Structure formats: structure tokens, C-alpha cells
Give the backbone structure.
Amino acid sequence: MTESAERYTANIVDTVIFRSLGKPPNQHVESLKQAVAAASTELWVPPAIYRELTDSSQEPPQNPYLDSGVADGWIRVASPFSGNRETPYESVSDPVQQAQHLADGYLNEQSKYPETNNWRDASVVALAVRLFEENTRIRVITHTADENLARACARIPPEFGYHNIESRYYNPPQTAKRRFPTVESLSWRGE
Amino acid sequence: MSYDTEHVRNAGDGPARITGLPTFTALLTNPDLADLYTQVRQEAGVTAPELIEEANVSKKTVYDYLHRLEQAGLVVETDADGTGATSRYEAAAFELALTIRGIEVSVTPELVAVIARAKEYPVITRVCDDNGVVAFALAHDLIKAHSEGELTIRQIAELTDLSTGTVYDLVEAVYAIHDLGDDAEEPTTYSPADVANDELSLESTDE
């Protein structure tokens, strides 16, 4: 068995990609489900992204974009992260929390606009680091329509010794409905 | 939302002065008027009959709008073929510059072109009605900056006080109307080697 075949590939997906695909059932989501199975992977989302796509006006709240995929087992929602943005970086020792702080700061450094709270964006990077921390033989692919977040996803995990990451950037965002649900986009390229 | 108006001015080779502030305001709130102005801007030298053929409003309304735009200095009648037989129209460029929370925002014909598509993209009317044209103009500028990779969609939401869901809908509309983004068949893939030189601060993000 090759090294490639032995490694599990996890795909972390940002909100904008699911919004581009639309609410299931539809052809884009069906194509995605088939591509996930063909690529032998799973889609992961941080809790913050699950909440962002949740319709809280329903009782109980429902997630029209993700719940069916979660129930079918091909979308996985990560358990909540510990720590918060108010905790100073210097007092944090957990690599996952450190990564989230670094991503938050990186996104402000890359932007010419006033500083913002980037904790939800940074959760994508944090989840990547957590998956590396918890799995020895893993590769991670991230998917977003924000260029700076895409760069953060490739830039920050190596700070913790994790280099098996590829970060896909969809521009314009609405093309994700066509470019994302493919075996190629969900598979490790190793370029 | 507080803001300072720095200046309103004509841009390019338009007439010297925009005189009709009510019409200028209507241009930002009336999609049909915005659509007519945008058509004149995109087809310099267009005639009234040509505009009537493409318009979503009545012949009478087209002439009324042309008159209003002309009175306001936003459209000028020209004699492009030199015969004087047919009235032809050209749009005057303009720019309204504002500063909101330290961010420069511009109200330009490009913004009017988006408002002209409000019936196609309901989120445009929703944001203009609920948050005001200035907030919409800010979002419009930031979405263009997003297409250049300068900030994230969630950063736009925070800077505009709009919900992320609303910003996602606006992003899709503005990208489509302005044909922003690249034409590549595949997404861009970054590996650690591609971004190894990006600076990373280890300072606290705590304010």
C-alpha cells in the first residue's frame, strides 16, 4: 500500500461554499455527496460555521445546509473549541487555541481596513491544527472563498509542524457550486 | 452610522456641475432610474427610441427620467452625428466620496449600475431599505476589495454591521453584476511553500 493510500484526507469547508451549493436536496449537493464517497473523505466544519448556517427561527433550530449530510455521516461537525479570543496569546499553551489566535491576528495584518474580530474565520485554521493533533496519518484540505483565509490555512499549521495541508481558494465565490463538488477538489494533489 | 461628506464632484468630461440633488438621490433609490442612467452610460450616444425599446418603464416615463437626469446634469444631450435630427444622450460621470469609520467610500456610476439590478437581486433593495444607501455603498466597495483578496466576507459583515448571511447574498450579486473574480476552471491551491514568506506576528490579538 502506498503512503498516499494509507493517509486519511479530511476536507474542512467554509460557510460560503455551502451557501453557494444551496440547501439540499439539489443537484449540487448530490454531486458533492457522490464526490465525497468517491474521494474516500469526509467534510468537516467548525462549530462556529455550523451555527452560522443554522436557522434559529425554527424550534428546535435546524441547519438546512448541513443536517442531512451530518445525518448521513459524510459531514462532521467538530466539537466546540476551548478558549476564547479574550485570553492573551502569551497565556495559551494549547496549539489549537494558539493557531486560532495566530489566524485572527494574521487576517488583521493582511487587511488594510480597521481591525476586526476574526475568531470565526480563524476557527477554520484551528480545526485544521486540531485534526493534525489528534490524527497521526492525516492530510487536510481547506476550502474557502476568502483569499487571506486561504493563505492563513496554508501558512499557520506549519508553525506547529504540520505541512500536509492544501488550501483551495474559490474566486468568484459562486463558482464553488461547480468547482467544489468534484473528486479532484476533494483529493490531495501534493504539488 | 455617522459619516462625513468630503465632496461631491463630477468626474471625467461631464458637465461642470450636478445641480439636482433630489434626482441624484433618486438615482440611488430608484432602480428604474438607475437602469436608464446605466444604459446611457454604457451606450454613449444612445437615442430615446433606443432607450424606450430596452426600458422596463413606459415611453412617457423614459422621457420624464431623461428630462430629470438632464436637469440634474447627470445626462447631457449631444449632437453626435452633427445633423441635429435625433437627440442623443451621454452620461456624466460623478463621484461622491465619504469617509465612514475611517474607511473611504465612493458613490459612483458603478454603484448605480448595481442598484439598477435590484429587481434581479432582492438583497440590494433589502440592504438599501434597512440599512441605507451609504451602508450599501460601503458594502459595495468592500466587496470589490474582497475580490482583490484584501479582506474576508466576515470582515465585511463586521465593518458594515450587516449579517454574514446578508453579506454572502450581496457578494454573490455584486460579483455577478461586475463580473468580478477570475475565469479559472479550478480553484487556486495554496501549499505551505506558497505562503512561507507571509509575515506572522506572534503578538497577542487581545485588544
